[in-house]
Amino acid sequence: IEIEGDNLTASCEERFEGTRWTSTFSSRFIEEITHRTGNFKSFAVFVQMLFDALLDTDQQEAVQDNTTVTVDILTGRDLELLRHRNGGGVPPSQSTSRSLPDSEAKRYLILTYQSRDTFTSELMQHLSPQASYDRVHYPLALARQEPGSDAAALLRTIKRLSRELKDVYRSSRGGSQIVTRSVDSECAVAADPVPSSRAAPSKKLIARLEEENERLVRRCAELQNEVDHRGSRGGARGQQVSELKRLRETNSRLHGDLKQLREAKMRQAQLVETG
């Protein structure tokens, strides 16, 4: 979530594929959305609610006694199912949902505001929960953005990926030696087929990915500067577009490596638990 003046930009990203959905909304649009729900909120209040919803549950409970705000990201099919549940009608079939034009083109950020009447008795809350709660959904549609089409977004993705790789590696080192060796072996076969007698494959794998990430971070920063400087002068951007394409492909490969590492670790952890 980014706030710039009277504009709010919301983005979400698919963790492994790197696909992003993002949109920018004016304060006037946000207030119009809240007005349509029958529970008007000013732009400033809406922004505060959104940030509160992104807090951890414990933090949220500490700052809110009788209200709850949550955020959900829904697909087109999710939204249709929600509408069916709330308003009745025939639920959409899987074939129908696949034919929806925005099934992948959009994601929906749903900010849900729920207030509780403090004067409602505990008995009434138990007998009729809906009577004691006022729940309002504020929907925002996010448009699909091609992976790697924006250098700044790709840079953020690569930085996050680098942090996750380090976290996974630290976690694997903190486990038992049996788990670590098994994960090392599976990762060596999946991503870096080097005999285990030569070195610790997982350590080499992480080192290689981190080194490649660092190089990509530097190149993305350079590329973003080039785009910023040349874009205003209308210069040729073919080279930048080609470079972004290569970065996108490398970024997708790194996502795959991270996914394989995590899956291998989870499988071995399950084997240890069952054994």
UniProtKB/TrEMBL annotation:
| Compositionally biased region (Basic and acidic residues) | 243-262
Q: State the residue spans of region: Disordered.
A: 227-262
What InterPro entries does the annotation carry? CCDC61_N
Q: Which domain of life is it from?
A: Eukaryota
Q: What is this protein called?
A: Coiled-coil domain-containing protein 61
Mind giving the lineage of the organism this protein is from?
Eukaryota, Sar, Alveolata, Perkinsozoa, Perkinsea
